[in-house]
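Give me structure tokens for this 420-residue protein.
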Amino acid sequence: MATAPTTEQEAIRSTLRALLTAECATDRVRAAVLTPDGHDRDLWQRLSADIGLPGLTLPTALGGAGCGPAEAAPAYEETGRALLPSPLLATAGLAAPLIDALGTPAQRTELLPRAAAGTLVCALALPGGSLPTALGLTCDNAAVEWSGGGRCGGVRARPAPDGGWLLYGEAERVLAGHSAGLLLVAARAGGYPRGRTLLFLVPGDAPGLTRTRLTALDETRPQARVELRDTPAALLGPETGPETGTDTDTGTADVLGALTDVGARAAVLVAAESAGTAAAALERTVAHVRVREQFGRPIGSFQAVRHRLADLYVQVRAARSAAHHAAGEPADAGALALAQCLEAVRAVTAEAVQLHGGIGFTWEHDAHLYFKRAAGDELLFGPVHRLRAHAAERSGLFTPQAHEEHERNDETRRTEATVR
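Here you go.
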């Protein structure tokens, strides 16, 4: 992947930055998160109609722009800089790609143009708050039971007497779940032990559906509890015939594979957002230390402060580099880039609070908006050490063969050193 941004990427970045700088200052962010939707509806419509932000990565035949992660990453980086409260990640980063990958032609034609236009907000509801697990970011989603397992908990799916499906259960920490017009619910169909996880479409006004907005650490990413009590639903994708709903494994590989693919791409987008958040927090901190004085001089002139800022600058640059590299190879580098960016934004925002001094410790200060975004994202998509551990496992770093090869390389280096 080329390191220099393309003309198209720079155009996306500059257009978004100009709009968000004018329309998404921190006072507007605070006001937007208190609305029933949890975001500024007018700004969301402008981002959808004027820029086409939610349709950036959707197919052109279905109303999108057909861009890849390399073009989407700069856009998400700008939304991270502004701490934009919006259903962008929930709709365009998670739900819409799954509909595109698994939906029937009729489902795709009906739903994706509305999602691309910003008129349909979608949310992915996963049982047990298991977002990084289900997306294959912290472990193999086929190796663990995260959707109930057919015994208890999670969301259960059973065929309705008159056709269709009925869902029963609940899901926690659903991004944009309280205001979404369409829920994409992961549920377990079939009994234990040979049931499988499927995805179902549930309208926001379906009977038996209860949604409660949760109090989240990061208010710019609204979350909800979704409860389903024999709620009618439609299977995402084609019905497989009379055997659907019995104890078979039909469809498991497709659904879990699609979740893993979407998770790899979503990791790139969240990494880009985090890199933008870290960059903005650092810029605000640098601006503060230039004007805040102690002992008759700006605190930014003190060597200790400069050293701390220099360390943060290196972390921000490394995070942006990792995010940009992963945008070219999301399947291989997405989780590692996400770990790098989450770690960087956590360090930068924590230091931002410290370097703002006494005022930085008040919850009302803007530094805490960035700090809470960093902490909230790691709770949602991390932790960092598990992201890295799973990436290492997938690459074969911890296999016995890799360990033996590492030992042989060490022995070779020791021998060469002795000869020299």
